[in-house]
Automatic annotation (TrEMBL):
Highest rank taxon of the organism: Eukaryota
Key words, A-Z: NADP, Oxidoreductase
Protein known as: DER reductase
GO MF, one example: carbonyl reductase (NADPH) activity
Length: 195
């Protein structure tokens, strides 16, 4: 449906397969890192498998894909933009989210370091940090009315985000409208962090 866009289907936790597929797909001018998993477990019950899977997808894959794409951008000598999809959970502790919150906090700091190091190459790097978004994953993890009510009550705008809320923020950060924005986190949280 979108001419010029060719989807790649692969397990981003597979370092070698990712290197081969993404390395062959360029050249790139823009990148959005949006893959994520949310394995929710109480802190005392966090399993090694959940920890490994979460960091593989939510952090390591972003670092790896961004390296591949940024190297291509630099080789082209053209400016570029990278947007990493983080979360309000990077900045606020949530029950049963020890691993998820930690991966998203790590992603926020990775973004700042990337912005600092890639800026001289005219590559901007930012995050969007949404509240709960009504995706399939959001519905699975927030379908319990008691759980969702407690979260919504802490959001001044009184609702979860829709996909378009996040997409529009990403489009802004990819565009020249944000030409002087790098190393920033754009909160798409309905005010959750100020409540």
């Amino acid at each position: 449906q979108c001419p010029g866009i060719e989807p790649l289907c692969l397990d981003l936790a597979d370092w070698d397969a990712t290197e081969a597929a993404v390395g062959a797909a360029g050249p790139f001018e823009l990148l959005v890192n949006n893959a994520a998993v949310a394995v929710l477990q109480p802190f005392l019950e966090v399993s090694r498998a959940a920890l490994d899977r979460s960091f593989d997808v939510n952090f390591r894959a972003v670092l790896h894909v961004s390296q591949i794409v940024a190297r291509q951008m630099i080789a082209q000598g053209l400016p570029g933009a990278i947007v990493n999809v983080s979360s309000q959970a990077s900045q606020r502790a949530l029950r049963d989210h020890a691993v998820y919150c930690s991966t998203k906090s790590a992603l926020d700091m990775l973004t700042k370091v990337m912005a600092m190091e890639l800026g001289p190459h005219k590559i901007r790097v930012n995050t969007v940090n949404p509240t709960v978004v009504m995706t399939d994953m959001g519905r699975i993890n927030w379908s319990d009315p008691q759980k969702s009510a407690a979260m919504i009550n802490r959001i001044p705008l009184g609702k979860f985000a829709e996909v378009d809320d996040v997409v529009n923020s990403i489009l802004f950060l990819l565009s020249d409208q944000s030409a002087m924005t790098t190393g920033s986190s754009l909160m798409v949280d309905g005010g959750f962090l100020v409540s």
